[in-house]
Each structure stands twice: as structure tokens, then as C-alpha cells.
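Page 42, continued from yesterday. The earlier attempt failed because a stray header line got pasted into the input along with the sequence. Redoing it now with the clean sequence only.
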Amino acid sequence: MSLRPELRDRAIERAAAVLEPIARSSRLLESIAWPRKVERAFFAAGADRLPKPEYDVDTDRARANVDAVTELEAELAGDHPILAWLRALCRSYGDANRMLLGVGERSFYELSLSLYGGARSTALDADTTNLDFAEHIAKRLALPAAPPGERPLSTDEFIGEIEHRLRTRRPRIPLEIVRDPDLSAKVICGMTRLRVREGATFSAAEADSLFFHEIETHALTAQNGAAQRKLGFLRGGGPRTTRTQEGLAVFAELYGHALSTGRLLRLVERVRLVDMAEQGASFLDLYRHLVLRGVGQRDAYLDAQRICRGGLVTGGAPFTKDASYLSGLMDVYNFLRVALRAGARDVAEVLVSGRIALEDVEPLLLLREQGVLDPPVLLPRWLQRWDGLLAYFAFTSFLNEVDLEPVEARHPLLVERARAQERERKSRPPPSLSSGEED
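This time it went through. C-alpha cells are written below.
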């Protein structure tokens, strides 16, 4: 199957002309964020009334975007993988704008479920749901404990830590840091700007994970996409790239030893919250559930609003994005296990050349071989340490096949101790698991 260079270039030029402005205007997360005034009103009313978020969506622009990508998709007919990839991008940006048109309605949830999956979606295999995987992880984690004497970082200290990391990183990732007193989350990171809520505090572990997740992954892949000479629309990618991008970001935390117990439990808890909301729990149900589990009131509000933003605060129709992080991690981890068997560095580089889905790697490899896709300007640390990455996967690929039963039989006291700790863990409420970041 071949695609003549002149036809390929014509299709890409046409796609770039349509998709690049749509990539800049389709700001789904920004559009469904709840302003601080919603939070203030909620607590002023005694935290016992459903919040009433209002969304400022440019519906005319969203409809025009849907029409434009629908027309473009029809133009890109053909069986070649590059044309199929461009059509998938059209559908993804179309879906992002359809979600914008559906905010506050059940249709928003239905699109979210089809794009991100839900808590009970079988994303990993035929019968293991996202919730099953989350509970499996939870059973194997002890409750986090802050290091003795640890003091949280102030906003100033957190910004100073991030600025230091940015200054010392090579090559540097250009990023503006902005203080925002009205930010609903602690941190929101875009392609070139990191917004930090004034007055927020951070643990050292949070600062570490946020750097790897938001800057070393999300900002990095977006900037690599924007730097493409012919494929600048890779700065985005729409909802179809979310699962891969979040999985890649969590992998960066894991490989960088920044994925703490507390952070992993937060990801588990978010899957549980999505499940509760899908089964009919309202915002108030989620909020009260978290408060009863020992989460602070403001953190409980932030976690509940993550799940309800864009959907129905009355329950049954949440934003399901938070159900995709852990399964996305498994996607990326298993993909790298396969891709790196032969030391395929070009595959790993394609993966960070923009905001892409795993399904895009093969057509983008073709474009790289043809000189259309540029090598990434920025490499994440896990890819900079290439030899270590190969050694890591060579070793863990064998560990995945080891039968642990003989090991457990040789150490029965340790097994019983672990079971006792698990019983103790279930008997006491967890500490606050929320960090209020947008990732």
C-alpha cells in the first residue's frame, strides 16, 4: 500500500490548515473548569446544596469546528494508514467540540464514556475493568505517611523549586509560571504556561510528581508537537490521545521514582469516585463520602468537582477522564515492553513527538522515515537515559513471569505480616488523598 508523496503532502497541508486553529480553540478542560465563585457559594451555603456551575462555551465556534472537521474527514478518503490517522484526528477534534456543545447535559457523559471509558469499562482485557485494576492496586499499598518533620512547601517555595528544575534542565523547557488566586485547582499546566493557585501548599512528593507529570510530559509533548514543521497540529490531538498522554505522564512519574503511595492512592480514589457518580451519586454524595473518609472539606470539594465538571451534578453523568489514568499507564508500559525489545529508539521518540495516541505510532513512523515528522526537540528524562531504560525493561520483562508462590512459601512470616497490615489498613480511615491538581 503506497501513497504518492504529492498526495501525502497535499492531505497533510490541508489537514494542517484546518486542524491547527481548531487545536488552539478546542480547550475542553479550560471550558469546563469551575470558577472559584462556585466554590465560595458552595461553602457560603453550608456545603449542603448542589453547586450551580455555569459554563462559558463559544457554541458558534464549537459548531463551526465540528462542521470543518467533518468536511475534512470526508476529503481524506483512502485506505492508507496516514489517511486513516488524519481521519481519526478529525473525529477526535470533532468529539472535543461535541463535548463542549453538550456541557451540563447527559450527552456530555455519553461522549466522555465513549472516549475515555468509565470505571467499569474493560479497557485492560476482556473482563478486567478500570475499577478492578484500581482495587487491585489499593490492596497492595500501605497508607502513606509523611516523613518525620516534613513541612509543606508554600506557594513561593513550590514555584522556586519548579523554577530551579526548569533552569537546570537540558534542553530547557520554556515555561511561564503565573500565580492565579482564582484558580480552582492547585496547578494547571498548558503548553507554555504553568498556573499556580496563590496560597496553595505542596508536599515535596507533590512537587516531584507534578514536575514529571505536567512539565516533563504534558508541556513537553505539546511543545514538541508545536515545533513540527509540517505537523504543528500535534500540539493537541483531542480526547482520543488522553489515555495515552495520561498513561505516559504517570509512567514518567513511576520511572522517575516520583510516583508516591499517596499519589497512586489518589488515582485509585478517582476511579472509585467516577464509579460512584456513574451509579448515580451526586456531587454532594461524593463530597460527603470524601469528608467521612477523612479528606479535608476543600480537598473533598476539589475532588468531587473533578468528577462532576461538564456533566450532571445531580449524578449519573460524570466526566470520566479520571478513570483512564491507571489503564493508560498499563497501555504505555506494555507498549514500551514490546517496542523496546529490539532497542527501537525511534519508536520511543515518535511517542513523544507530539500529543498522540499509541495507535498513531505506526503511521507516524512512516512519516518520520519519509522526513515529514521531525525528531522531538525535547526528550523526557526517561528517554534521555536510554541505556538505563533498556536495562529496566529487559529486567522487568523477566520479573513479570516469575511465580511468587515458592517465594511466599519460603517466607510465611512475611506473608502473614503483610496480611495483618492489610487488615489494619481496612480498619482505619485514610488520610486526605487529594492534591487538587489538574493533570
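Notes: The chain has 20 helices and three strands.
Reminder to self: strip header lines before submitting.
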